[in-house]
Design brief:
The complex is a heterodimer of chains A (455) and B (254).
Chain A (H helix, E strand, L loop, with lengths): L2 E7 L8 E7 L3 H10 L4 E4 L15 E4 L15 E5 L4 H8 L4 E2 L11 H6 L7 H4 L6 E8 L2 E6 L4 H7 L8 E8 L1 E2 L4 E9 L2 H11 L5 E6 L11 E8 L11 H4 L6 E2 L11 H14 L3 E8 H5 L5 E2 L10 E8 L5 H12 L7 E6 L13 E9 L5 H14 L3 E2 L9 H7 L3 H11 L8 H5 L9
Parallel strand pairs in A: 2-4, 3-4, 14-16
Antiparallel strand pairs in A: 1-2, 5-9, 6-10, 7-8, 7-9, 11-13, 11-15, 12-13, 12-18, 17-19, 17-20, 18-19
Helix pairs in contact in A: 10-11
Chain B lengths: L9 E5 L4 H11 L5 E6 L2 H13 L4 E6 L8 H12 L5 E4 L7 H4 L3 H29 L2 E6 L12 H20 L5 E8 L2 E2 L13 E2 H11 L6 E4 L3 H8 L4 H6 L3
Parallel strand pairs in B: 1-2, 1-4, 2-3, 4-5, 5-6, 6-9, 7-8
Helix pairs in contact in B: 1-7, 3-5, 5-6
Classes of the chains: A alpha+beta (455), B alpha/beta (254).
Chain lengths: 455, 254
């Protein structure tokens, strides 16, 4: 059996810490043995980038996928590659980029494992064109409490899709075969435009997003009135080779180690209204008003925050929450209401990320559905914050929208039932593959995802 | 489970009829609290609180009867409370307390012994039972109601103050012993609280209400501070009072 120790862990937001036994299995045989002998609940954990409590289970067993590092080879023609669930996007990119391939979907950090990418069915700046991560997964090996299975869109599709966005509750993902994206260079051609209010940002996105593979807007939630929701829109695509000739080899453009690091928790009040307002102002002024065809490295464009290790510590001991929701296209007004509500309640929030989603997939629990998504980082501290977010939940649910489990750390169980109509179908799959309820996380208990109260 | 703001979904309340406990319960239920066990002596008062909590939307409220004046009842009270709530236990609130009547307690061995049993021995015994269960769970939060009267005792309420001081000291050590277990603990020291327990007394400076103390407790759940004051200014007031020369301290009103 792999390494085993008792340890306390929390999510990236550094809230709701809990103690559990952490085991690092090295083979599927070890995983199967663990699942059949475990008592007290088991959940997988990757690199711990979920903000809340999906990758922990107090008093139970957290199964780290760190030793599941099986890699490739990459098929040069089809771009297909089979990866252990513990392989990070960081590792994958460092191998794939020199071979002319890119990960089909990447979130804002490279520190995400393949297992985590599937369990959260992550999305990136290209969702409106390419959909979410699971859309590029051909098949996967899953260790369920009732046995090891190979699933795909045609082989037990219910289990395959329930695993997408299923937050690890269908079992331990062992390996997956995914299709990489062929790229011409390690650079991105980027158009940047600055917009003075939310209406302008959204109008520009509606008008032009379809012309770009990647599109995202950073919106300032500390402004009000005529400048409410001013933002910077960056859109682009992988640059063709002839455009970036003489810029150095792919190796030089490959992400390296972070240049900066936050070595310990900052004082809890460091990120306050004053400092965040100043930061947002400086950031907006720094962006070019209109710059077409800029060339950026992959790491700068996709993973700017990876340049600072442990940046979450800037929020101090009390930690922070991220609030990310999606609402349908015809409920875009909810985006404005949410920004207004946060702006008037004096809750400090860093730049929010605004993006348009394309069609969702067949998963009952996957977050992306067509429409607008907004994500905000908010420090724990302001006494109004819990209530404001509860009110936003109601607003989002009423608009037919939903909250992203990978970011959540404070939603209520009753909201989940309203936001995820696929919940019953998901529970049916779980009852089949895990009748004893072996797979459990603190998130699942907090939100009663299994539908078995007080278990 | 507790959320990012430390808000519990399940709680065991020792001293379920204390006004501060009840004010705290009302605020917790308005947030995430759903399953509750109330531990106390009076069937009537606990029953009324149970009805109120169920009407406010709690899915389950169980009652456990125990008398804090009987220290031998503590072990059984912990057993019953934990089995009545089931897993997981998010919050344990210790709100048992007896203010007494200092003039009558002054020369009474029996009354003095009872004061220390209710304010110190029984709560400490309960917390010893709670500790092991939460550590096994790998998680959970304990809040203990102390008082600023324990920081420096005085003639008006020294039996109460000393009893709470004993509990407060026990709890600070207990909190330190929980480091690395996933279990966390907070001690709340209110100033003079206007409740039924103090209705007959003159108000002291910086007096507060049960609701205000409850707000300190509920908002404090997201803080990492071990000792909280209600109102918070008392933290600084007592830095001063603690070091006053004895002859001035004795002459202070209240």
């Amino acid at each position: 059996m792999g390494e085993q120790h008792r340890s306390s862990v929390a999510g990236w937001g550094n809230t709701a810490r809990a103690n559990q036994t952490i085991v690092t299995p090295t083979s599927e045989a070890e995983i199967e043995q663990l699942l059949t002998t475990a008592s007290g609940g088991v959940i997988a954990r990757g690199l711990g980038r979920s903000y809340g409590d999906p990758a922990q289970v107090a008093g139970g067993i957290v199964l780290s996928n760190a030793a599941l590092q099986e890699f490739g080879p990459i098929d040069r023609t089809s771009g297909l590659v089979t990866l252990g669930s513990g392989v990070s996007i960081d590792t994958l990119l460092s191998v794939a980029i020199p071979h002319g391939f890119f990960v089909p979907v990447t979130p804002g950090t490279r520190q995400v494992t393949i297992g985590g990418a599937i369990a959260s069915d992550i999305h990136g700046k290209n969702h409106h064109i390419d959909g979410s991560f699971m859309n590029h997964v051909l098949s996967l090996d899953l260790a369920t409490p009732t046995g090891l299975v190979h699933v795909s869109a045609t082989q037990d599709p219910d289990l395959f899709w329930a695993t997408a966005g299923g937050m690890g509750l269908t079992g331990i993902i062992v390996r997956a075969t995914i299709k990489l994206l062929k790229i011409d260079s390690a650079y991105v051609s980027v158009d940047t435009t600055r917009h003075n209010n939310l209406d302008d940002v959204m109008a520009a996105m509606i008008e032009g997003d379809h012309r770009y593979r990647y599109s995202v807007a950073w919106v300032d939630c500390m402004t009000s009135g005529a400048r409410l929701g001013r933002g910077v829109l960056t859109r682009g695509d992988h640059a063709p080779a002839d455009l970036v000739q003489g810029r150095g080899s792919a190796d030089e453009a490959i992400p390296t180690k972070p240049r900066l690091s936050v070595p310990f928790d900052a004082p809890s009040g460091l990120l306050n209204r004053l400092s965040i307002t100043a930061f947002n102002e400086a950031w907006f002024r720094r962006a070019p008003k209109n710059k077409i065809g800029g060339i950026e490295r992959i790491s700068t464009f996709f993973h700017p925050l990876d340049g600072v290790a442990n940046w979450n510590r800037l929020y101090g001991q009390r930690g922070f929450v991220q609030y990310q929701f999606v609402v349908p296209d015809d409920e875009a007004e909810t985006i404005r209401l949410a920004i207004e509500r946060l702006s008037t309640s004096k809750v400090p929030s860093f730049l929010a990320v605004l993006k348009r989603f394309g069609p969702g997939n067949l998963s009952p629990m996957s977050f992306p559905t067509p429409g607008w998504t907004l994500a905000l980082d908010l420090p724990v501290g302001p006494s109004a914050l819990p209530q404001v977010l509860d009110e936003l939940d109601d607003l989002v649910a009423a608009a037919g929208g939903r909250i992203y489990f990978a970011k959540d750390s404070r939603m209520s169980p009753s909201s989940v039932a309203k936001m995820y109509p696929g919940l019953e179908a998901f529970r049916t799959v779980l009852d089949r593959v895990d009748p004893e309820g072996v797979m459990v996380s603190d998130l699942a208990r907090r939100l009663n995802l299994r539908g078995t109260p007080h278990a | 489970m507790r959320d990012a703001f430390g808000q519990p979904q399940s709680a065991i309340i020792f001293g379920g009829t204390s006004e501060i406990a009840q004010a705290t319960l009302r605020q917790l239920v308005a947030k995430r609290l759903d399953r509750v066990v109330l531990v106390g002596r009076s069937a009537e008062a606990l029953g009324a609180m149970k009805d109120e909590l169920l009407a406010s939307g709690c899915s389950s409220v169980e009652l456990v009867f125990s008398n804090a004046a009987d220290q031998s009842s503590a072990a059984r009270a912990v057993d019953e409370a934990f089995s009545a709530l089931g897993q997981p236990v998010d919050l344990v609130l210790m709100a048992v307390g007896l203010l007494g009547d200092q003039a009558k307690d002054d020369d009474s061995p029996n009354r003095t012994a009872e004061m220390f049993t209710v304010n110190t021995t029984w709560p400490a015994a309960i917390l010893a039972g709670v500790r092991g269960r939460l550590v096994t769970q790998g998680y959970g939060h304990i809040v203990v109601l102390s008082t600023v009267a324990g920081i420096r005792t005085r003639k008006a309420n020294y039996t109460y103050g000393a009893g709470k001081m004993g509990l407060d000291g026990f709890c600070r050590g207990l909190a330190a012993s929980l480091s690395g277990t996933g279990v966390t603990m907070q001690i709340v020291r209110p100033g003079f609280v206007t409740t039924k327990m103090t209705a007959h007394l003159d108000k002291a400076p910086f007096s507060t209400t049960a609701d205000a103390v409850a707000t300190v407790i509920v908002e404090g759940l997201s803080k990492k501070t071990t000792v909280l004051y209600a109102p918070s200014v008392l933290k600084y007031v007592f830095v001063l009072l603690r070091h006053l020369p004895e002859f001035i301290w004795r002459r202070l009103p209240g």
